[in-house]
Every structure is written in structure tokens, then in C-alpha cells.
Amino acid sequence: MQERAAPLDAETKVAERPHDHKDELRLWLRLFACKEVIEGEVRRRLRHSFDVTLPRFDLMAQLYRAPKAMTLGELSQRMMVSNGNVTGLVDRLLEQGLISRRPSPKDRRAQLVSLTAEGRRFFRAMARANGDWIADMLTDLSGDEIETLMRLLAKTKASARKAIGNGVPR
Amino acid sequence: MQERAAPLDAETKVAERPHDHKDELRLWLRLFACKEVIEGEVRRRLRHSFDVTLPRFDLMAQLYRAPKAMTLGELSQRMMVSNGNVTGLVDRLLEQGLISRRPSPKDRRAQLVSLTAEGRRFFRAMARANGDWIADMLTDLSGDEIETLMRLLAKTKASARKAIGNGVPR
DNA sequence: GCAAAATACTTTAAGCCTAAAATATCCCCG
DNA sequence: CGGGGATATTTTAGGCTTAAAGTATTTTGC
Known about the structure:
By secondary structure, chain A is mainly α.
């Protein structure tokens, strides 16, 4: 169960500070908007340049970086999405010939998935383009600014996780 | 058409700087992860506490803040989603009795949508809870840190928009 | 050894989302 | 006035996503 400030404490805090939750909310909205702009463009370019969706790109990235073939379960864990979701993505990538699938020799329930030769080539091209796009979109940020953002976003994530109660798996 | 550095320039840049696009990519991934954590929890809590999805909450927020009833087209613009998407969301909110819909007196093509009395009450409760959740999740950030993040995220968004070519509508 | 629990995966039902085509209406210009 | 382009909305086809239920296989504990 997550611990949250008792109602009374929360009200005290609000009373002490002239601004209630406004700043936090505005920050959240800005973070969200920022991510929407970048992600929207990445999706658009992946679709137009490679006819690939972001989820498929993500799945291929997992396979590309993995030393060995992975099961659907491992993929679903690493991508932090549901099992059924991975089933569908794998089906569609198989149709495109970008990955291959074979039964696990150790466990007859499991399937091992890996990139085909074409899948590897294709992924390398996409990853290179993706890196260029991101660098291009963030080009106005200095090294210092990137570093500051990295640090503060890490802190933000940690704060959120603490409030959610991650660390203890739910 | 967007102007991008020619391949040769890009390689020169990489050669000059020991780090290629790595920092930008890592920043993007961190921004994304940060947003996932917060958004995931907001969705979960909206569903468990109010049996409402985030898109429906967003739509109601638009109606709540608007001085007058809005058409589907205005909603779709403000929410930055497609027309067909709004059609579906409005259908489902109508079923729940949270919004109402009437033909525009000025334009027989258009429909005017607004919150019902129950919709307003319900939205106020959700918005209050949402503010509390966000403030709670961002509680470890100081006022200064929030301010810095606001500024740098604004700069990030502006940089991305410039690279995308927003400003000129596509 | 074998029943029960756990695990790997698929299926299903429902919702969100988009682009593109279809419909209905409005508005302008000749 | 009347045709043609613009606009408001819906529909359609396809993909992503989840939770929950179902299937097959493995593992565990007695």
C-alpha cells in the first residue's frame, strides 16, 4: 500500500504556501507536452521513412541489443508491456520478415525470437536515423543543459516512484 | 521540407566530439521514462478511483475550462487528436451521462457539446484528486528545481518544434 | 509419482488512436 | 442562383494496448 500525506498535512502545506499544486501540475503538463512533440515526430518519421511503428522499433531494439534470442516473456518484461501485446507485435514483425521464431529447445511452452539478417540491417538503418532525428530536435540544448535535465528528470522519476510505492513490487 | 545536416557534416561533428548523439538519445529516453511512470500512475488511479480513462478526463477538462459549449471540431483541435477520435470519446461520455450534445443553432453540420451538471461535479472531484496525486509524486522537487525544469523543458520543446518545422503549420 | 501451483503464451473484449474516404452542409463567386 | 470548394462530422480499416480468461507445459511439494 502506498503511503500518502494525511489530508490534514496536505492542507497545512497548502495553507503555508501561497501557491497550491499549481506549479507541480504545470510542470507535469509541460513534461507531457514536450514528450508529445518529440514522440509524435519520431512516430511520423518512422512511418514515412521506414513504414514502421514505434512499438515495432522498440521490440527490434530489444532483440538487437540482446546477446541471444529472447522468449516472448522476456520481451514483454523488458518492454514493460503485457504478454498479449507482444504476441501481436511478434505476429506482425514475422509477416514483415524482420524477425524469426522457433520453439525453445528447453521448454516446449516457450518460443525464441530473434532478428533476421534483414531485420538487423533494417534496424541499424532505423537506429542511425533515429539518433540523428533526436540530436537534431535537441540541438538547441547545451551540454550543461542536457546534464541538468538528466539530473532533474532522474530526481523527478525517483520522486514519483517513491510516491507510487515502486521498489516494493505491487 | 526540413533542412538537416548533410551526412558529411554529421560525421565531422561526430569525429570532433568524443560523444556522438548519445547524450541527446539518453536524455530523450529519460524524459520518456519519466513521463511513463507518472502517466501510468495517473491512468491507474483515474481508473480505480473514478472508473474513467485519461482521454475522457482530458476531454472533460477542455469542456470544464471552456466558457461556452464547444463543437467536436474545437475539441479535436484543442486536444490535438483526430476528429474520429473525438467522435468515439463523445459517444462514450454521452453513454455515461457526463456530457450532453445538441445541434448547433448556427450550423447544421456541427454539434455543441457541454458537461452535464453531474459531469461538472464529477470532473471537479477528479481534478482535485489529480492535483493531489501530481503534487504528491513531485514532492521531492524544490521550487527552484521545478522552475529550472519548467525553463529547460520549454527550451527543449521549442528546439524540437523548430527542428520539426512547427510554426509553419504542416 | 502425481496433483496442484506456477509459468509461457494466446485469445478475447473493450477502448484508444490515426489516416483516409464518405456524407452533409455551408459559403463564395461568377 | 447555382456549382464548386471548404468545413463538420462520421465511418472504416488497421494498429496498439490492457485485463482477464483459456491452453499447454513445467515445476513443486507431498
